[in-house]
Design a protein that fits this description.
Membrane topology: Multi-pass membrane protein
Pfam families: E1-E2_ATPase, Hemerythrin, Hydrolase
Strand content: 5-15%
Keywords: ATP-binding, Cell membrane, Membrane, Metal-binding, Nucleotide-binding, Translocase, Transmembrane, Transmembrane helix
Strand order of the largest sheet: 10-22-21-20-11-18-19
Number of helices: 25
Number of strands: 22
Structural class: alpha+beta
Radius of gyration: 34 Å
Number of domains: 4
Family: Belongs to the cation transport ATPase (P-type) (TC 3.A.3) family. Type IB subfamily.
Subcellular location: Cell membrane
C-alpha cells in the first residue's frame, strides 16, 4: 500500500509541475501558479504526516525541514519552488522505497520459497499433504523441479540438488543414497525418495526463514545516526534561515535555505546502503540479523574462532591405515569397514565412508556384537574381526610405535584384529578445512588485526592446527564458561567477532560484539545466540560477509557525508541570496538522487570480494580436486616401501619398488603434467599474475626429478633387489617424494581448489 501511495504522490507532483510549466509557457501565469500550488499542497500533507508519525515513535526527523520549506514557499508565493520541492520529496521517497525493496529482494526470496507441501507415501502411493503434517520417518517423493520439503536422507535414487538459494552454490550438488539432504533446495535432476529426519518446523530452511524475518536495516547504528543528526541539523537550518531573513529582510532567502536542506541525504543513504549490504550477504549464504549486526561486523578488528567444526571439518576423517607387518593396507580397511557398517559410532562412519570412496567391496558381517565404548566384533568371511580400542594385555614394539606416532599427530586410533591378532591400526583426525587458510588471509587483508583460536580441545591438538593456519593466540582446554571469559577479554581490547557451531559455543557467541554461527549443521542454540548465521558449511562465506559489511558501512558514511557537505554549501549560497528557491530545489533533488544511487553501489561486489571463477576454470578445479582424492591413498605406498627397506633387501623389495614407480609414471605424473599445461595457465589468468603458479611448477620439477632418480635406482638394482650401497639414497628418495607430494597436494588444495564454487567439505 505504501508503495502505491508513493507512486500516486509522485504522479501528482510531477503532473502538477509539468502542467504548470505548460500553462506558464502559454501565458496563463495565474493558472500555472494554481497547478504548482496543487503539487505543493499534495506533498505538504503526507510530509506533515511523516513528521507526526516520527514524533509518535519518539523520533524527530529532518522531514520537518521539508514541511517548513513547502509551507514557506506557499507563504512567499514561490509556487514553482514549492512544486519542485514536492517532486523532490516524492522522488526521494520513491527511490528510497525502491532501494530498500530492491536490497531486501534476496532476503524476501528466502522465505517466499519456503516449501508448503510434501508428497508423502501412503500404502505405496505418494499424496500431497501440508508440509507441517510430515513426521519423523515419513517416506517422501521429491519430483524433478520441486523443493525438498524437510531435512532427510536419500532412500532411493540420486538427488541432484540446486542449493543456490540456501548456500549460494551456483552448480547442482549430487547426493547418493544414504546421504543427508537439506530442506529448501530444489531437485534439479530425476525424482528421488527420501526419509524425513525432522519435522518442517525443525528443518534447515525453517531456521533460515526465521532468521530472514528478523533481518531489518533500520536498527543499524549508522542508520540511527540520522535521528541524532536531526537534533542539531534542524536547529542549525532554522538558525541559518532566520539569519538570512533577518540580515537581508527577504523571507525568500529563508525559504531557499530550507529548500536546499530538504531532505537530509543521511536519512536516505544510510538505510539504502545497509539494506543493500544485507541483500548481498544473503546471496552469499549468510543471514545477518539486522543492520546493527552488519555494521558491527564491518568494524570488527579481532576474530575469535572455535576449532572443531569451524577451522576444522568437524568430523573425524581417516588420515592413515597402518597395516601390521605382513598385512595389506586395503585389506585392513575392508575388514574394518565390513564390521563398522553395523555401527552408528562417528569413527565407524568415517571408516566406512573411506572404504566406499576407495571402491572396496564390503562383505556382510555376521554375529555382530557391539560393546559401547570398546568396539565391535563380527564374523567376516569366516574370521573373527574386532574393530575398536586396543587390548592392553600385551603390546609389541610395533604397536608402541603406532601409539607414539598417533600421539605426535594428535590422531585417534582404531585397532583392527583378525582372530585376536592385531592386523593394523587406522588413524583418524579432524582435518583442517581446505578453505580455512585462504579465508584467514582474506580476513586479515580486510582489516582483522588479531585471530584467536578458542577451543575445549587439548592444547597440543589446537597448537598443531594453529601453526598451520598462522593463528595469533590459542586458548585451549576451555570450558563454556572459560570460552565466555576469553571472548570478554578480547572484547575489552577491540571490537570482536566470534565464530562457533556447537551448543557450548552459544554463551561465547552472545558475549562477543557480533556472534557468527556455522548454521549449516551447527546447533540451534548457537544459531539463536548469534548475530550472523552461515547457512552453508563453508567458513569462506564469513570473509564474503565481512567484505560486504565493511563496504556497505563505508558507502553509507561516504554517501551521507558528501550529501550533507553539498547541502551545507548550498545553504550558505542560498543564505547569501545567490540561489533562489526554485534553483535550490533542483540542486537538492540532484543531491538526493545522487546519494541514493551511490548507496545502491553496496549491492554490487567490491574490488576485495571473493574471486569469481568462470565455468571452464571451475570445471578444471573440480576435476583435479577429484583426481587428488583418487591419488592420495596410493601415496601411502611410497612411505610403506621406504619404511620396509632393509639390508639385505626382502625378496619382494624390487617388485614393490617397481609398483611404486609404475604408479608414479603412469598415474601421478600424467596428472601433474596436465595440471601444468591446463590448470596453471587458467589460475594465472584468474589470479591476474602468471608468476602466481611458479612455486607450484617448481614442485612439479622436483617431483619429476625424484621419480627419475627412483627409476635409475631400479635400473641399477640387482635381480634380487637393490644393492646395499643404494639403500640410503633410495630411502631418501622415497621419503622425499612422499613429503613433497603430500605438501604439494595440500598447497594446491588450499591455494587453488578452495576457489571452486562447488568445493565441499
Amino acid at each position: 500500500m505504501r508503495r502505491f501511495g508513493l507512486i500516486a504522490l509522485l504522479v501528482v507532483t510531477i503532473g502538477a509541475l509539468f502542467a504548470g510549466g505548460a500553462l506558464y509557457l502559454f501565458g496563463a501565469v495565474g493558472a500555472a501558479d494554481v497547478a504548482w500550488t496543487v503539487g505543493t499542497v499534495a506533498a505538504l500533507f503526507p510530509a506533515a504526516w511523516w513528521v507526526i508519525s516520527a514524533l509518535r515513535h519518539g523520533r524527530f526527523g529532518v522531514d520537518a525541514i521539508a514541511v517548513l520549506a513547502l509551507a514557506g514557499s506557499l507563504a512567499v508565493r514561490e509556487y514553482l519552488a514549492g512544486a519542485l520541492i514536492g517532486v523532490m520529496l516524492s522522488t526521494g521517497q520513491v527511490l528510497d522505497d525502491y532501494a530498500l525493496r530492491r536490497a531486501r529482494r534476496d532476503l524476501t526470496a528466502l522465505y517466499e520459497r519456503a516449501p508448503r507441501t510434501a508428497r508423502r507415501y501412503d500404502d505405496g502411493t505418494p499424496y500431497v499433504v501440508p508440509v507441517d503434517d510430515v513426521r519423523l520417518g515419513d517416506l517422501l517423493l521429491v519430483p524433478s523441479g520441486e523443493t525438498v520439503p524437510v531435512d532427510g536422507v536419500v532412500r532411493r535414487g540420486v538427488a541432484l540438488l540446486d542449493e543456490s538459494a540456501l548456500t549460494g552454490e551456483s552448480l547442482p550438488v549430487e547426493h547418493s543414497e544414504g546421504e543427508s539432504v537439506p530442506s529448501g533446495v530444489v531437485n534439479a535432476g530425476a525424482a528421488f525418495d527420501m526419509c524425513a529426519t525432522v519435522t518442517a518446523a525443525e528443518s534447515t530452511y525453517a531456521g533460515v526463514v526465521r532468521l530472514a524475518r528478523e533481518t531489518e536495516a533500520d536498527s543499524a547504528p549508522i542508520v540511527r545516526l540520522a535521528d541524532r543528526f536531526a537534533a542539531w541539523f534542524l536547529p542549525a537550518t532554522l538558525l541559518v534561515a532566520g539569519l538570512a531573513w533577518l540580515v537581508s529582510g527577504e523571507p525568500v532567502r529563508a525559504v531557499a535555505v530550507l529548500v536546499v536542506a530538504t531532505p537530509c541525504p543521511l536519512l536516505l543513504a544510510a538505510p539504502a546502503a545497509i539494506a543493500s549490504g544485507l541483500s548481498r550477504t544473503a546471496r552469499h549464504g549468510v543471514v545477518v540479523k539486522g543492520g546493527g549486526a552488519l555494521e558491527t561486523l564491518g568494524r570488527a578488528r579481532t576474530l575469535v574462532l572455535d576449532k572443531t567444526g569451524t577451522l576444522t571439518v568437524g568430523r573425524p576423517q581417516v588420515v592413515d591405515i597402518v597395516p601390521a607387518p605382513g598385512r595389506d593396507r586395503d585389506e585392513v580397511l575392508r575388514l574394518a569397514a565390513a564390521v563398522d557398517q553395523m555401527s552408528s559410532h562417528v569413527l565407524a562412519a568415517a571408516i566406512v565412508r573411506t572404504a566406499r570412496e576407495r571402491g572396496l567391496a564390503l562383505p556382510a558381517p555376521g554375529d555382530v556384537r557391539e560393546e559401547p565404548g570398546s568396539g565391535t566384533t563380527a564374523l567376516v568371511e569366516g574370521s573373527k574381526i574386532r574393530v575398536g580400542k586396543a587390548r592392553t594385555a600385551s603390546r609389541s614394539p610395533w604397536e608402541d610405535a603406532q601409539r607414539a606416532r598417533a600421539a605426535l599427530d594428535g590422531a585417534m586410533t582404531v585397532w583392527v584384529t583378525v582372530d585376536d591378532r592385531v592386523a593394523g591400526v587406522i588413524l583418524l583426525r579432524d582435518q583442517v578445512r581446505g578453505d580455512a587458510g585462504r579465508t584467514l588471509r582474506r580476513l586479515r587483508t580486510a582489516g582483522i588485526d588479531r585471530v584467536v583460536m578458542l577451543t575445549g580441545d587439548r592444547a597440543e591438538v589446537a597448537e598443531s592446527v594453529a601453526t598451520v593456519l598462522g593463528v595469533d593466540q590459542v586458548l585451549a582446554e576451555r570450558s563454556p564458561a572459560g570460552k565466555v571469559e576469553g571472548v570478554r577479554d578480547e572484547v575489552r581490547r577491540a571490537t570482536t567477532a566470534m565464530v562457533g557451531d556447537g551448543i557450548n559455543d552459544a554463551p561465547a557467541l552472545a558475549a562477543a560484539d557480533v556472534g557468527v554461527a556455522m548454521g549449516a549443521r551447527g546447533s540451534g542454540a548457537s544459531a539463536q545466540a548469534a548475530d550472523v548465521v552461515l547457512t552453508t558449511d563453508r567458513i569462506d562465506r564469513l570473509a564474503d560477509a565481512m567484505d560486504v559489511a565493511r563496504r556497505s558501512r563505508r558507502i553509507a558514511v561516504q554517501s551521507a557525508g558528501v550529501g550533507i557537505g553539498l547541502s551545507l554549501a548550498a545553504m550558505v549560497v542560498a543564505a547569501l541570496g545567490y540561489l533562489p528557491p526554485a534553483g535550490g530545489a533542483l540542486l537538492q533533488e540532484g543531491i538526493d538522487v545522487a546519494v541514493i544511487l551511490n548507496a545502491l553501489r553496496a549491492l554490487t561486489p567490491g574490488l576485495g570480494a571473493r574471486r569469481r571463477v568462470d565455468g571452464r576454470t571451475d570445471a578444471l578445479l573440480r576435476r583435479f580436486e577429484s583426481e587428488h582424492a583418487e591419488l592420495r591413498p596410493p601415496l601411502e605406498m611410497i612411505r610403506d616401501v621406504a619404511d620396509e627397506l632393509s639390508s639385505p633387501p626382502a625378496p619382494d623389495t624390487l617388485a614393490r619398488l617397481r609398483r611404486v614407480h609404475d604408479f608414479l609414471t603412469q598415474e601421478l605424473l600424467p596428472h601433474e603434467h596436465e595440471e601444468e599445461e591446463r590448470l596453471y595457465p587458467a589460475m594465472g589468468d584468474l589470479l591476474g599474475d602468471p608468476e602466481a603458479t611458479v612455486t607450484m611448477s617448481r614442485a612439479h620439477a622436483e617431483i619429476d626429478r625424484l621419480v627419475t632418480r627412483l627409476g635409475r635406482h631400479i635400473e641399477l638394482a640387482e635381480p634380487d633387489g637393490p644393492r646395499p650401497g643404494q639403500l640410503d639414497d633410495l630411502r631418501a628418495c622415497l621419503y622425499g617424494l612422499y613429503a613433497v607430494l603430500t605438501l604439494h597436494f595440500a598447497q594446491e588444495e588450499e591455494a587453488y581448489f578452495s576457489l571452486a564454487t562447488s568445493s565441499r567439505e
